[in-house]
Amino acid sequence: MAHIRKTSNGRFEARYRAPDGTERASRFDTRRDAQAFLERLGVERQVGRWRDPRAGRALVADWVAIWQPTTVDLRASSRARDDSYLRTHVLPKFGQVRLDAIRPVDVSTWVAELTNQGLAPATVQKAYQTLAKVLRAAVDADLIADTPCRRIRLPKVEADEMRFLSPDEVEVLSETMAPRYRALVLFDAYCGLRLSELAGLRRGAVDLRRRRVRVAHNAVEVRGKVEWGAPKTRAGRRTVPMTNTVAAALEQHLAEFVEDDPAALVFAGADGGVLRAGSWRSRFWRPAVRDACLDGVRIHDLRHTAVSLWIAASASPKQIATWAGHTSVSVVLDRYGHLYEGNEADVLARLDSFASMASGDAPSPWVPRVFRGFSEGSEGDPTEPQGPDLRFQGGRNRTRTCDLCRVKAAL
Predict the structure, then answer these.
(1) Is 82 strand, coil or helix?
(2) What pTM was computed for the model?
(3) pLDDT tens sequence across 174-195
(4) Residues paired with residue 27 on neighbouring β-strands, in sequence order
């Protein structure tokens, strides 16, 4: 049974029995505080939320050493990133602090210190997210009752201006690139793979007859070691179509530089092994970018270029999300929505034609062919639109209901 006794120094000791059977004690200045503590413990035990008050005395560094080996769901690159932020930002500040001693104001002060040191807002946010992950795990382990990482104001990350290449610039960059990587530039500028996906692409994933590639693996260099894996999300495992031009360039590349083996790497490193991002950028990418007078262009900008060209070719947001491996259409619209601007005149003209047809003022408005995307099993030209030529007739000899139904069918 829990009880309170007065100690020789005038304080009050609340004694209670923990769920493991051991007797515990906590001391307070007043009997009222001791009684409130025991009542709170009783409620927590009844609702199954009791935790050992001594557990929060663990140092953050000690908890990190216990917690890190349990994070089995992390990719190698994510683990390396977390280790870096822990080592350089989190543990120097909080490593020797007790878990239960960290207050929200301490976290806010730390965020302000990192910002005042001149760190990029994105770096500050990622460091904070790493600390929040550590403390959230401590809550889940019943070491602390709540995380102090709540309602913390973080520096705003301004979206970087994306760089898009024109088709002419893509062609120039391809010509300045070393011969074994010219097809890589053209392929990525129109298919939009990530560099890790290019490095993990194997010959067996390329279907030249149907002009498409299957993205199912990636290869990332982490601490000098190549880590193989699948794309991070289910959406990342996808099939991307190729134009005739890209397919022809890739076919020539395969004939010249790639063994006739389904497991052979399509874009291997200079030594024939896996393409390693750091050395490849310094040996091949940057010299080619400099020679093409495109200073500042990153390999990832080819992915942005592909999306911009898809939009210019009237691909729908859903198609773009699928081909780019984004989890939702909203990601495409948030990131590239500004590129859809400029087609208001076409949209308004079509709306006018719908209204005119419904009122009978226009004799025969029509909706042009609707592009249905690349047919998964089509053996024909993937640049040809799929589906019927959707047209409808208007005029006074038609009823308004019939005309509106035809509009809905066209949409």
Answers:
(1) helix
(2) 0.66
(3) 999 999 999 999 999 999 999 9
(4) 13
